[in-house]
Structure formats: structure tokens, C-alpha cells
Amino acid sequence: MFLHLGGDVVVSLKNVIAIMDLETTTISKITKEFLAVAEEEGFIESISEDLPKSFIITEIDKKSKIYLSPISSVTLQKRAGYIDDIANV
Question: Are residues 76 and 19 in contact, defined by beta-carbon separation less than 8 angstroms?
């Protein structure tokens, strides 16, 4: 199964580690530091010119990559089926 992150970016769901809301998670100092280091190290890819609403942490071939997406984390989670799976538990 694949997940469309926005723009022309599609990733395999098996490579997705986390889908995070950018506004609520960046309140934390640790998350801000994590994203700053990831940007310095070149792990972050912005999907579009639009203001990002979420970030998606992935691992492909033992390499981490973080995508900044203009699509909300709730919408991405619905697309991935996470919310439906949780509701059926």
C-alpha cells in the first residue's frame, strides 16, 4: 500500500515511521531540535512551496528521510487507514 504525501511524492506505507502534525509537535523544544538537526544533516525534503502542515518520518533502505507536507496529519492518517484500524480495535 502507498501513501500520497502531496505534490508528486508517494511512499510505501511500510516505510512510514510517523505522521506528525507540525503545529502541535513543534511546541516541544526537543522536536524543534530534532527537526533543526535533520535539516542540517540534509534529511528533510519539502514537498511543495505551500506552508507545511505535517511532517512524515520515513526510513528507506536504512536511510531516514523527513518529508514536509502541505496535507494535514489527520488527512494523511485517514489515507493510510490508521484511524480506521484504531477504530476497529
Answer: yes
pLDDT category of residue 84 using cuts at 50, 70 and 90: low
Give the CA distances from residue 14 to residues 18, 32, 41, 60, in Å, rounded to whole numbers and listed in that order.
11, 26, 24, 9
Predicted pLDDT of residue 88: 60
Q: What is the mean pLDDT of residues 70-81?
A: 92
Torsion, Cα of 82, 65, 35, 29 (10° steps):
40
CB contact at 8 A, 11 and 5: yes
Helix or strand (DSSP H, E) at 12: strand 9-12
What's the pTM value of the predicted model, to 2 decimals? Answer: 0.87
